[in-house]
Amino acid sequence: MSHVFEAQRAMRGRREAALRRGVVAVLDVGTSKIACLILRFAPDGDEGDRRPTRHGLTHGAFRVIGAATTRSRGVRAGAITAMDETERAIRTAVQAAQKMAGVRVDHVIASFGGGSPRSYGLSGEVRVENGEVSELDVGHALAACDVPDYGHGREALHALPVNFTLDSRTGLRDPRGQIGARLAVDMHLLTVDAATVHNLLQCFRRCDLELAGLTIAPYAAGISALVEDEQELGAACIDIGGGTTGISIFAKRHMIYADAVPMGGHHLTSDICQGLHMPMPAAERIKTLNGGVLATGADDRDLIEIPSAFEGSERDRQQISRSELIGVMRPRMEEILEEVRDRLDASGFEYLQGQRVVLTGGSAQVPGLEELAARILGRQVRVGKPLRVQGLPQAATGPSFAAAVGLALHASAPQDECWDFEMPSDRVGARRVRRAIRWFRENW
Amino acid sequence: MLPVKATRDPAPSRLKYRLERLWLRPAIRISVRIGLPLAALALIGVAAATDPGVRQAVADRAQAGRDAIAAHPALRVDRIAVNAVSAELSAALAPVLDIPLPVSSMDLDLDDLYDRIAALEAVAAASVRIESGGTLKIQVEERTPAVLWRHDDGSMELLDASGRRVGGATGRADWPELPLIAGQGADRVTGEALALLRLALPLSDKVRGLVRVGERRWNLELTTDVVVMLPETGAQAALARALALNDADDLFARDISHVDMRDGRRPILRLKTPAVDMMRNLRNPEGERDA
Fold first, then answer.
1. Which of A16, A98, A293, B155 could form a disulfide with A368 if both were Cys (CB 3.0 to 4.6 A apart)?
2. Where is the SHS2 domain (chain A) (predicted)?
């Protein structure tokens, strides 16, 4: 796990450099769109005294100065399939955002939807050395977690210490400075496909951008779409995107579970396209303008005109009723939600205090989805819009920008990760010494 | 069916993307927006300044403008007025004042003219100025020769009272009224020499001149071949004393060659050879020769 530590620490270093420079871009690489926001930290004047500290800035000390969205290309189910196309799409988004902001960005914090994330709950226990828990003890406890064999082609993306137990007291947020004998930690380890991450990295490198942070989209969406009470008491954020539906469960302000279902809005579109015989752009348009999942009596009389595949000939104009459209969309949406329900059940979501479900993402805007989801998931459901942040354009305040806004919040107030603590020296010592020797040899 | 014309890719090309990002660097932006025009201006300026044709034209224009101003009648000088001076000085001034008239006062270098006039030996002080009405007025104060200084090789110079050279002299006969001094370093103490000569005025017809000895003291030489040797200090008192002796005893008419006044206590006389013989005879009437 050591090389992961190194990579993540390098990323953290870049993130801090970016915060010190004050300008950073966040980029949500989704299946259907790529959104780019450029943030300026500690804007001149009113908040000038808020300097970046070790753990970044406090919530809201940034301002969005550039925003751009472009259609995603070369991405399927949240993973890059055509590097060139994706690179072009990223360039388009970044350039447009830079043009709006008028500044150049070098550091980018990114999120992606795919990579089939998998969560592991780990726990480790150590004896406290000096009676008082120090940062080193926390590091020891984190290092004592027995890491499962998560497979060769996978990479650890997050390792969040979510809960500390000191002797018999559990639920501690920060055990440092407390007196105790045995320190136990519960850690949430999230792994994703290494190939997906490496492709994304390569893509940014080709755009001359440096990656200063990487998360998965459901995590970012959860940060922005869940209100504080929900994060504290426990809630699930379901980010229904274009190609994937991400699930993230929060409790005690920590993400404790994340998963993704490789189905999303694009499947609805292709169902309409096939079932009702119309071209893809038309299907997308009709889904967006007239779509729904709950049929009423009025929908039978609501006729929708379908543009023909053979343009120009007036004779074969087609009309469908809205209930037909709903009849196509609903089974697919039910399928997605049932899949989500299975994943939630598998995660042990029912044991949390609060069990609210928040739907977000582009496809969460389908009318009637709330009721359908409540019926299928059996829980309180609401559609969540992202938090309001300074300077965000009106066009970017909808649920489909939850991941991008959440990424911005995450950049300004990142959570402690496992690698933010000092590793015990017996794990990395030899490496450190070797690095020091190499440095001396190179520089003297 | 393939589209006839491929739809244009909305994405920026990699080159365009890089250029755009380069353009967003403040340093590049400033250097292109301000530095480049400045560099172009500087280049044009340098090219114009180094072109000989342009330089010539600029110089010609400047000269023409200056000439136009210089040609104004108020600046014209058409007369040179010199105050009355001796013929020698006039002759010496003539090449200096050889200025083609009329001339514009802008073309006249008065400082240079003043320097050249003041550099003349016979000029003690000068003033050069342009007066209204186009007159170049030159006031010259002449040096007056006070003594004639003879060198060891026989050449002579005229000196004024302060010892400054006034001019050369060809012979003693040209300046019969001037006293004569000789010897090295005599020009530095002309004042003392003149004082001595003034003192010796009663026997002026008999004075041949003063000789500076060893650059420290004077000898007064008389036409009767008597030499009055004066001390370094108190030369005037010594001379007065010698003159008093002369008045009393007609000393200088006697058969002596030197009157040595250097010893302040008493004058010492050096007799000529016949006088020595006579003295010896007077002391020894028998004509004995001392053994």
1. A293
2. 24-225
